[in-house]
Design a protein that fits this description.
The complex is a heterodimer. Chain A is α+β, with helices and mostly antiparallel strands. Chain A has a domain at 1-100 and 116-360: 2-Layer Sandwich (Alpha-Beta Plaits). Chain A has helices at residues 21-30, 59-62, 82-85, 96-99, 108-112, 163-169, 191-195, 222-226, 248-252, 258-261, 280-284, 291-298, 305-313, 318-325, 328-335, 388-395, 400-421, 427-436, 441-452, 456-459, 467-472; strands at 3-12, 43-47, 66-69, 72-75, 103-105, 124-126, 178-182, 201-203, 210-212, 232-235, 240-243, 268-276, 299-300, 352-355, 363-365, 370-372. A four-stranded mixed β-sheet of chain A has the order 13-12-1-14, with helices on both faces. Chain A has a two-stranded antiparallel ribbon with strand order 2-7. Chain A has a two-stranded antiparallel ribbon with strand order 3-4. In chain A, helix 16 (388-395) crosses helix 17, helix 17 packs antiparallel against helix 18 and helix 17 packs across helix 19 (441-452). Chain B is mainly alpha-helical. Chain B folds into four domains: 1-29; 32-123, Cytochrome Bc1 Complex, Chain D, domain 2, CATH 1.10.760.10; 141-238, Cytochrome Bc1 Complex, Chain D, domain 2, CATH 1.10.760; 255-289, no CATH class. Chain B has helices at residues 2-31, 34-41, 61-64, 67-75, 77-82, 86-94, 108-123, 141-152, 189-192, 195-204, 211-217, 222-238, 245-268, 277-289. The longest helix of chain B has 30 residues, at 2-31. Chain B is elongated. The chains are: A alpha+beta, B mainly alpha. Chain A binds chain B through residues 50, 53-55, 58, 61-63, 91-95, 97-98, 137, 149-150, 153-154, and chain B through 269, 272-273, 275-278, 280-281, 284, 288.
Chain lengths: 496, 290
């Protein structure tokens, strides 16, 4: 057993309103520099949609993540031998067009244009070349336009649907979409780290944040091809790659990362998980339909005395363990089992989990009004507008039962709360639903509280960073104790 | 203080080291016997009693010129030539303009020793520096074929020298690739070197900055010189002009090769990433239009 700690995340998609505040917070802090204009370490996608970069989920094209070859896990994009032959022309790199060409507007024209018959306009100019461009795409192109025949229709996850289901998706009353905010997943089995020829990427020991050492990065861009979530970006100005750093300077000082902090819908939760690093290889190699459960198995119970002992032996501080015991992420993922990893079939074991959204009910238009087609208060989710297969592809590696379980539980809790607060549902019926959904009344209350009434402290349980310990690895903090303070660069010519 | 100390500490080593180096190089030049020196520096152009190569036969050279003149010549051949010495100018004409180079590391002492050696060797019936003796038998058609094989490297040279074709070409080979372009075209070499005798002696010890270093280490065998002469003679006799299509053929072949390589690369990296968004948009609109 090799117990380690990981700062992990849950995004509750049912609460996401798609306002992009998180993206802007991140952009203003981290990617507002030359060479990073096109990067969105945090982005919000409309699903169904192709996302950013375009169709990033299509690994037949991008070759990201891991695959099993002869029973062993290997990177799809590269390998020890292949990296030599592809070093100077690393294949499978998204081009700027696949992200988008970042632009701004020539605002000074509004003030400097000579007097004329027409209003002056601010024309768009590329932030890369500075020349006029015709805007063709953006990082959230077709935002809120799920019926779009270009972007929504080409969502790779729609491959799980029958042609009939696909046709229904774009029918006018059935139009459906939800938002899918994405940051780096800070995976347990990160393909980016494995792929780097320079060894510039590493997973921080104390909290599992995956980082790129800007001094060691040689810009080979293997990480960009290897990351199946396309969350590592090449800075064309510095010639090095960059990625989400989970705002570690903020985490180390006890603040939530900027995107978490600024989230309007309060969809984001952050907390420590303890996991058994010895089992990563075995777990990541399980068959697709077992992956969600296997991933959960990897996360261990921070209240188990044996685990606590093993964690201490591994140098995990007591207050980190206490933080793990209070972690909201542990509750969502392990206790309640209502948070699922995105595209676990890429086998990087992402540590960002999503609570899948309850999608709008089916309705029909009878000429005057839109009618709810379901009999009960809440619809049977098999009749929901977005087919469960779609969510299953996104969050269950094709295992729909995992998504079904989550939706059933959420629905039971809503029914139960309706019975408590409004009373138009029989409590007996609600409790029956809870039992059906593998949920107790206490659990329902707890989920309700953490979902709807959560405070800052509930959502973000940030472990102490213990920087003093980290620094011990490279320097003795007591080196200058009892010596002369800052010391002298040159010897003084007086005194003893 | 510390800095100066370390420097002075270094200085104690410098003088002995310098002396050691000097004595080493000095002793090395002295260590060479005149015979070794002759073999290394003179034999590629001169024989003693073996007829002229690039330079004249040195047998009884002391009877032709005074020792003072010879020593002066050995130490600074270019200087003597520039001074307009009539004998030196005459010799240069005889060797078709070739200028003798000053042997590296030669001293007055060594020059005298060499002249002593030449005088001694001249008295012998057959000097060790008589050079290769090449038979005078008539050239046969088989010789031409063998010469071509040697020229093209089909038959390796016995002492390990590179085949002629690696640097030279002849017109009859110019169709697509031809021979090497580093050295001159040898089609008319037989005529240039004034026939069989000149060519054979030239080949027995090829002079020149490029040829000497190679062929003094890996000389041609007497058995190989004859076929090569036969081959080059035939070339001169044919004196085929270069085909005008040769250049175009070469160009076409190059272009064809480049295209072939590109196709091959495309096949090897057929599954490479070619961009997603543009292709997706185009495909979708194609669907709309059809």
């Amino acid at each position: 057993m090799d117990i380690r700690s990981q700062v992990s995340m849950v995004f509750h998609l049912d609460k996401c309103i798609g306002c992009h505040t998180c993206s802007i917070a991140c952009k203003n802090i981290w990617t507002d520099r030359k060479g990073t204009e096109y990067m969105w370490w945090n982005n919000v996608e409309t699903k169904p949609g192709t996302g950013y970069p375009t169709k990033w989920e299509d690994q037949d094209k991008y070759q990201g993540g891991w695959e099993k070859r002869n029973g062993k896990l290997g990177l799809r994009s590269t390998g020890k031998g292949r990296v030599v032959f592809n070093l100077f022309h690393n294949p499978h790199q998204p081009g700027l067009d696949d992200y988008y060409e970042p632009w701004t507007y020539k605002y000074e024209d509004l003030f400097n244009a000579p007097e004329g018959d027409d209003q002056p306009t601010a024309r768009p100019i590329s932030m890369v070349t500075g020349k006029h461009i015709d805007i063709e795409a953006g990082p959230n192109w077709d935002d809120d336009l799920s019926g779009s025949p270009v972007y929504a229709e080409n969502d790779p996850n729609l491959s799980a649907l029958t042609p009939e289901q696909r046709a229904q998706l774009s029918a006018i009353e059935r139009l459906v979409f939800f938002y899918f905010p994405r940051i780096c997943n800070h995976c347990l089995n990160p393909a980016c780290v494995a792929s780097c020829p320079s060894g510039a990427l590493y997973k921080r020991g104390e909290d599992g944040v995956v980082l790129i050492d800007q001094k060691r990065c040689r810009g080979w861009r293997s990480c960009i091809a290897a990351c199946p979530y396309k969350k590592s970006y090449y800075n064309w100005s510095t010639g090095k790659s960059e990625k989400c750093i989970l705002c570690f300077p903020r985490i180390e000082t006890g603040q939530a990362p900027a995107c978490f902090h600024s989230c309007v819908g309060r969809i984001r939760y952050l907390g420590v998980l303890l996991y058994d690093a010895d089992r990563i290889d075995e777990i990541a190699g399980r068959p697709d339909n077992e992956l969600v459960d296997a991933h959960r198995e990897l996360i261990v119970d921070p209240n188990d005395p044996a685990i606590i002992k093993a964690a201490r032996e591994n140098g995990i501080q007591d207050d980190v363990i206490r933080s793990a015991q209070k972690s909201p992420v542990y509750k969502f993922v392990k206790e309640w089992k209502i948070a699922l990893p995105p595209h676990i079939e890429f086998r990087t074991l992402p540590m960002l989990f999503y609570v899948p959204p309850m999608l709008p009910v089916m309705s029909s238009f009878d000429g005057k009004t839109v009618k709810n087609m379901s009999e009960g208060l809440f619809p049977d989710f098999d009749k929901a507008r977005a087919p469960i297969e779609y969510l299953g592809k996104l969050f269950g590696a094709g295992n729909n039962s995992k998504v079904r379980y989550v939706l059933k539980k959420q629905m039971a809790i809503r029914t139960y709360r309706r019975a408590v607060t409004v009373g138009d549902v029989e409590m007996e019926h609600a409790e029956h639903m809870l039992r059906e959904a593998d949920c107790t009344v206490e659990e329902a209350e707890a989920i309700y509280k953490l979902t709807s009434l959560c405070t800052f402290e509930d959502r973000f349980v940030i472990p102490p960073a213990h920087r003093e310990e980290a620094i011990e690895m490279v320097a003795d903090p007591l080196e200058y104790k009892q010596s002369v303070g800052f010391g002298f660069k040159e010897e003084v010519k007086r005194g003893l | 203080m510390v800095l100066t100390k370390s420097v002075s500490g270094c200085r104690c080593f410098r003088l002995p080291l310098f002396l050691l180096l000097i004595s080493f190089t000095y002793s090395q030049s002295l260590a060479q016997t005149p015979a070794e020196f002759f073999k290394k520096n003179c034999a590629s152009c001169h024989t003693i009693g073996g007829g002229r190569l690039t330079g004249p036969d040195l047998k009884d050279v002391s009877k032709r010129q005074s020792r003072d003149w010879l020593v002066k010549w050995l130490l600074d051949p270019e200087g003597v030539l520039k001074s307009g010495d009539p004998y030196a100018v005459k010799m240069q004409k005889e060797s078709r303009g070739a200028v003798m180079t000053r042997a590296p590391g030669i001293t007055g002492e060594m020059a005298n020793a060499l002249l002593d050696l030449i005088a001694a060797e001249s008295k012998l019936e057959k000097s060790q520096f008589a050079g290769l003796q090449i038979s005078n038998r008539p050239l046969l058609p088989e010789d031409i074929d063998e010469g071509r094989a040697l020229f093209m490297g089909g038959k390796p040279l016995k002492n390990g020298a590179p085949a002629c074709i690696s640097c030279h070409t002849v017109n009859s080979m110019e169709s697509i690739f031809g021979g090497g372009r580093l050295g001159p075209n040898l089609t008319r070499a037989y005529a240039r070197l004034q026939g069989r005798k000149g060519l054979s002696s030239w080949l027995s010890a090829p002079p020149g900055l490029t040829m000497t270093p190679i062929f003094s280490k890996y000389p041609l065998d007497a058995e190989e010189i004859l076929p090569l002469v036969a081959f080059l003679k035939k070339e001169t006799e044919m004196d085929k002009p270069v085909q005008s299509t040769a250049m175009i053929n070469f160009l076409l072949f190059g272009l064809g090769g480049a295209v072939l390589l590109l196709v091959l690369f495309d096949l090897i990296w057929n599954k490479r990433f070619r961009g997603v968004r543009k292709a997706m948009i185009e495909k979708t609109y194609e669907g709309f239009n059809s």
